[in-house]
Amino acid sequence: MSDTANNKIGVLVMSYGTPENMDKVESYYTHIRRGHPPTPEQLEDLTGRYKSIVGGVFPLRENTDRQVAALQRTFDEMAGKGRFVCYQGLKHAPPYIEDGVAAMAKDGITQAVGIVLTPQYSSMSVGGYIKRAAEEAEKHGISMTFVKQYHLHPALIRSLAERVGNALDRFGDRKEQVMVLFSAHSLPEKILEMKDPYPEQLLETSRAVAEAAGVQHWQFTWQSAGQTGQPWLGPDILETLDRLAAEGTKEVLVTPVGFVSDHLEVLYDIDLEAKKHAAGLGMRLERIDMLNDDPRYMAAIAESVREALGGTAE
Ligand code: FEC
Q1: So what's the pLDDT on residue 3?
Q2: Binding site listing for Fe-coproporphyrin III
Q3: What are the pLDDT digits (tens) for 220-242?
């Protein structure tokens, strides 16, 4: 890939997106449902979940902003100011993926790389982001390449392993007994027929983190499955907790390896729902701190972007 005339490389940092405020929950939910508005019950349920999470209603927005700013600083330090320029593109809320690509074009960018703020690839998640960005880039004549996954990047694994170690210390002399439960967002079961790499990549990340943290007792479980009437990958974390409790497990450390930020699926599904469920079973449940703008996570992204350029950004 050749350098651009103005020598700048655009980096499209893509993330899930969250409503801008409470009034936008319905349009956000409708976008997730590919244009089908939610029923009043579904809307009430989602609004209720946003209302009950701590730290403001939409922490993902601020976290994504912080991640993109931190990534820009990382690139500036790594390659000199102005060589890489980061743009944000969200899947389900403004600024949408297409807005990010259009902003690059407006700035005269002709060469770009796209990366998603989730480490593992699935055709239903990352594949969807890439498709939209690639289509928009083509419209603007931008030559764009993508990082599909970075689920085994050494800096990512080290960061997650350190978080596991720190969280295990909270259990004091019980830490050897703790079951480390790696988790990720479920997807419809039909991805298995498509030979999608998502489940295997999640296991690879989990295995590498467990090994780096010296963890013997670990399992993987799904979380946050949707209510779409079709079967989703399981077991769900609540079922896994039931089974672990029946087997005598008393302490669990949830380690979400498919998510990188504090957001609804972590702050509600794990911190409120799963924690309450575990307490009802007489278990203590803790969670690792999320990566957010962790410098090593930012370095993992920046290095993956440079690798995707095949060394032309030196
Ligand atoms: O904090 C926030 O405001 C947003 C949190 C959030 C993240 C997230 C990540 C992923 N999702 C993935 C797949 C699906 C599929 C459906 C689906 C539905 C929802 C709904 C909400 C939601 N997701 Fe999400 N997801 C987040 C939030 N997700 C809200 C709608 C109501 C609900 O089910 O709770 C089903 C779509 C359909 O109906 O057809 C599929 C995957 C990820 C992780 C990768 C990524 O970040 O892109 C996979 C964060």
Answers
A1: 44
A2: 16, 33, 49-50, 129
A3: 999 999 878 899 999 999 999 99
The DSSP output letter for 15 is E
Class of domain 3-150+294-313: alpha beta
Cβ of 186 below 6 Å from ligand 1: no
Q: Do domains 3-150+294-313 and 154-287 have the same CATH topology?
A: yes
Q: CATH second-level architecture of 154-287?
A: 3-Layer(aba) Sandwich (3.40)
**Atom of ligand 1 minimally distant from the CA of 264:** 1
Domain range annotation of the chain: 3-150+294-313, 154-287
Query: Which atom belonging to ligand 1 lies closest to the Cα atom of 188?
Result: 40
Q: Is the CB of 18 under 6 A from ligand 1?
A: yes
Is residue 151 in contact with ligand 1, taking CB distance under 6 Å?
no
Q: Is the pTM of this model over 0.85?
A: yes
